[in-house]
Design brief:
By secondary structure, the chain is α/β, with parallel strands linked by helices. About 40% of the residues lie in helices and about 20% in strands. The strands form three sheets. Strands 3-2-1-4-5-6 form a six-stranded parallel beta sheet, sandwiched between helices.
Length: about 375
């Protein structure tokens, strides 16, 4: 995001990118999902990944997450317009400090870490806006990245009174273009809230899973631990290092949440011999649980999809559907991913790999740029 704004759209009809050069530091699950979303929606001209693991960079290139990979910071970072820090929480600040000498003064920096107060304070000398997408999976690594993971997810931004408003606006626009919903809270409030809704549930899952996995009846207990128990403890299957780091970076808020949880457990224990009281509590918590918003990650099926760059001019949908109709390609579903001043992107779902190949050929012959779901 250069000060003079995005470049004009090219003759191919591709929309002008929001970002010229995007750098994703850490090409794991979330960093990889950001990269796929950026490439699917034509949000950056160039995506560079930086990671200590050469295998992760190779996989990210192969999956279409990034255009090129780097193993360490260097002068090449002078071309970065936006940097997304997507490494484990404990490494975000050290990595940002290592990158800082090479960044331009106008380069934007954001992160996706689950702890915010200490990061925001440590990176005040950069054009930094703290961020945390409330999305994830119990499967780690770039091979499990999926742009749909971020669609409709709440993405918390944590500016404070010293954060540059223009930087907040730019990061907010980038996040919205990925299909997520932004929410702004202070860094301290963020850490207090996620201690209850994210960090504490992980520790509860750790404790419950330890209880089931120990004792003389372990094998039988494990056999019975299906359905609800697996749903309740799903987060225990996530990255142990990333989970450890998020707890370590938010210790005081997590301790406070655990104290409240212990008190609530004691109140629930008192209801065990009170049938009516237990029923009242169960009905009350059912209403609360049922009121939690459902995040619908994606309108379309996960397979056989193309994303098409669409200029912002009349008649484009008609031209697209005519090109596909002439190629005898049946559209199973269609979603507008967003239209900016210079254009946007449309995603179509098809019935087979063969239909996808025919559709891509037909659209490219008609002058459109099309990418499959993996960004390629």
């Amino acid at each position: 995001m250069r000060p003079d704004g995005p470049r004009p759209a090219g003759g191919s009809g591709r929309p002008a990118p929001l970002v010229d050069t995007l750098v994703i530091a850490g090409v794991g699950l979330i960093g990889g999902s950001v990269g796929l979303g950026v490439r699917q929606r034509f949000l950056a001209r160039r995506v560079v990944g930086i990671d200590l693991d050469p295998a992760a960079l190779d996989a990210a290139r192969g999956l279409g997450v990034i255009d090129e990979g780097r193993l360490e910071p260097g002068p090449w970072l002078g071309e970065a317009d936006l940097v997304v820090l997507a490494t484990p929480a404990k490494s975000i600040v050290p990595l940002a400090r290592a990158m800082a000498p090479y960044l331009r003064a106008d380069a934007l920096v954001t992160d996706v870490g689950s702890v915010k107060a200490e990061v925001v304070e440590a990176l005040r000398d950069l054009r930094f806006v703290g961020g945390h997408p409330m999305a994830g999976s119990d499967r780690a690594g770039v091979v499990h990245a999926d742009a749909a993971l971020l669609e409709n997810a709440v993405w918390v931004l944590t500016p404070d009174e010293r954060t540059e408003p223009a930087a907040v606006d730019a990061v907010e626009a980038f996040v919205a273009a990925l299909g997520a919903r932004t929410l702004q809270v202070s860094p301290e409030r963020h850490d207090r809230l996620v201690a209850t809704v994210s960090h504490l549930p992980y520790l509860v899952a750790v404790a419950l899973t330890t209880l089931v996995g120990s004792g003389d009846e372990r094998e039988l207990t494990m056999l019975l631990a299906a359905g609800g128990f697996r749903d309740l403890t799903r987060v225990a299957s996530g990255s142990p290092r990333m989970s450890r780091d998020m707890i370590a970076g938010n210790r005081e808020a997590v301790r406070a949440a655990m104290r409240s949880f212990r008190a609530e457990l004691e109140r629930v224990e008192d209801l065990i011999d009170d049938d009516d009281g237990l029923l009242d509590r169960a009905e009350a918590v059912k209403r609360v649980r049922d009121a939690i918003p459902i995040v619908r990650r994606s309108l379309l099926p996960a397979r056989h999809e193309l994303v098409i760059a669409v200029p912002d001019r009349p008649g484009e949908f008609a031209r697209i559907t005519k090109a596909l109709g002439d190629a005898e390609v049946n559209i199973k579903d269609l979603e507008v991913l967003g239209i900016r001043d210079s254009g946007g992107a449309v995603r179509i779902a098809l019935e087979s790999e063969e239909a996808l190949a025919r559709a891509r050929n037909a659209l490219e012959a008609a002058g459109y740029e099309a990418r499959s779901r993996n960004g390629g």
